[in-house]
Structure formats: C-alpha cells, structure tokens
Write a structure and sequence with these properties.
The model has no long low-confidence stretch (mean pLDDT 80). This protein is an all-alpha fold. Helices cover 80% and strands 0% of the residues. The chain has five helices and no strands.
C-alpha cells in the first residue's frame, strides 16, 4: 500500500472501531440492529443503495411497525428497479 491508501485504511479502521464501541456502550444490541435496519429506509439508501433488500434485513423493523416484511421488500425492490432504470 502507498501512504495515501495506508492512511485511509488506518483511519477508517480506527474510526469504525470507535463508532462501534460508542454505539455498543450507548445502545443495547437490539437497538443497534434496529438502527441498522432503518438504514434501508433512509433517502441515501433509497437513492444510492445497490443491494436488494431481503426479508431478514428488515424483519424486526417491520414487526415493530406491523408491516409485512415480504411486501416491504417487494416495494423496496420496485423502487430500486425504477431508480436503476432511470440511471441507465
């Protein structure tokens, strides 16, 4: 690795570790998982996400809000298909 790549890797790992430790100290594991699932519904994820959402990716959030996880995944996949079609 050159100096620039090394700096990125060392900085990223240190920051990711610090954030992980802070999240773990402030929130229960279940809450962290819930927040991770909420990412699928952020504008950035909806506009830039490149992976199709699986039922397990949003199951806990859907259960909490009384939504059908399979239907939510179909809707998110439809949005992704439309977005990708618009980009191409």
């Amino acid at each position: 690795m050159d100096g620039k790549e090394r700096c990125k890797v060392e900085t990223f790992i240190a920051v990711a570790d610090a954030v992980n430790q802070q999240m773990a100290s402030r929130f229960a594991e279940q809450q962290v998982a819930f927040m991770a699932q909420l990412w699928h519904f952020t504008p950035r994820s909806l506009l830039e996400g490149q992976k199709y959402v699986k039922t397990g990716d949003v199951a806990d959030t859907c259960e909490m809000y009384g939504a059908d996880a399979d239907e939510v995944c179909r809707e998110l996949s439809g949005l992704q298909t439309v977005r990708l079609g618009a980009v191409i």
